[in-house]
């Protein structure tokens, strides 16, 4: 499996980019899984539904399954920061690609998603070059408008995800996952 991270500040466009890349990869017959880092409390369950009732009654894990999908919900007894490698290990090993959204401190190779400041979005510094695991930037401005030395790393237009999808597929070997501690 190939694994690549997408890192950036909140509301920089990570989810939108990943959402647009998935069908582009699937159009080439590739299976894509996503690992998403969520902040604090979140819920995918619906109040009043059977799974919600089981979980709120105190079940440690609830698996809901049908002929179309399966979901596992686990309640941690103590707050614990998730480890991205543990989450990847739980995925179907036959998947072609895993897109990891968030986990910006992980040791995975990452594409930084950067958004220029606007009325509703503050100015944010690039994480590159402080993060040596950033191998490309997807931004809403041309590369020559970013504080990245020319040729230092590829810069993609976040609004043209097909070019990024092609680059990911063409350089697939560099994303081969080797587990925790190894290069991706």
Oligomer state of the chains in this structure: single chain
Number of strands: 8
Low-pLDDT stretches: none
| Net shape | globular
- State the helix count: 4
**Secondary-structure-derived class:** alpha/beta
Structurally, how many domains make up the residues? 2
User: What is the CA-atom radius of gyration, in angstroms?
Assistant: 18 Å
Q: At the third CATH level, what is the topology name of the largest domain?
A: Rossmann fold
> CATH top level of the largest domain?
Alpha Beta
The SSE order reads EHEHEEHEEEEH
Going by CATH, the architecture of the largest domain would be 3-Layer(aba) Sandwich
CATH superfamily of the largest domain: P-loop containing nucleotide triphosphate hydrolases
**Major β-sheet strand ordering:** 2-5-1-6-7-8
Mean pLDDT: 88
Beta content: 15-25%
Structure description:
With 184 residues, this protein is of the alpha/beta class. The chain folds into 2 domains: 2-37 and 82-175, P-loop containing nucleotide triphosphate hydrolases (Rossmann fold); 40-78, no CATH class. It is 20% helix and 22% strand. The chain is built from 4 helices and 8 strands. The chain has helices spanning 14-26, 50-56, 84-89, 161-170; strands at 2-7, 32-36, 61-65, 70-74, 97-101, 110-114, 134-139, 155-157. It has a 6-stranded parallel sheet with strand order 2-5-1-6-7-8. Strands 3-4 form a two-stranded antiparallel sheet. It is globular, with a radius of gyration of 18 Å. The mean pLDDT is 88.
